[in-house]
Amino acid sequence: MTGYVMFRKHRLGTRGGGVILYIKESIQAYEITLAKEAECEEAVWCNIVTGNSTLTVGLVYRSPNISMEENEKIHNAIKEVRKRDCIIMGDFNHGHIQWTSLQCTGREDQEFLNLVQDSFLSQHVLEATKDENVLEKVLSSQKEFVDNVKICEPLGCSDHNQIHFIIKVKGERNRK
Hints:
Layout: E1 4-10, E2 18-24, E3 29-32, E4 43-50, E5 53-61, H1 68-81, E6 86-91, E7 97-98, E8 103-104, H2 107-118, E9 122-123, E10 136-140, E11 146-154, E12 161-167
Parallel strand pairs: 5-6
Antiparallel strand pairs: 1-2, 3-4, 4-5, 6-10, 7-8, 9-10, 11-12
GO cellular component, one term: extracellular matrix
Protein name: Endonuclease/exonuclease/phosphatase domain-containing protein
GO molecular function, one term: catalytic activity
């Protein structure tokens, strides 16, 4: 996409898949690597320079048939970046969590909900993103980082709705 820097991570061992994150060229951003125990197969992490600090932004895809080992890596990644100013987004395939009442069914959903709560992260997507489920999440370390969340029609042939939102931090633009 013209005017954007692309950060991506391919799905290993298969054709297609993976994650891709676009950040405007005018925003100073660079890819980061997490600790080995937090390196997820389908996640990409960047730091965005925001004045005198950085905001860590992560994009994660969690398959519905994920291995226990890979699920643990996603949890470790969240535990690592929660210590920073961060926004973590993606399709986590935890569709049975009621975010308004903080209730859920299923062990994996409960573990994820506990992780989000124990990490003091705010979940900003409260409407269904696929059928009746809230599969996509936008989590932030500070509630005021995310504003104006809108659930929009799917893009192209996707069966998931788009999520549009504004990240509200002060930043420095690249000088070119």
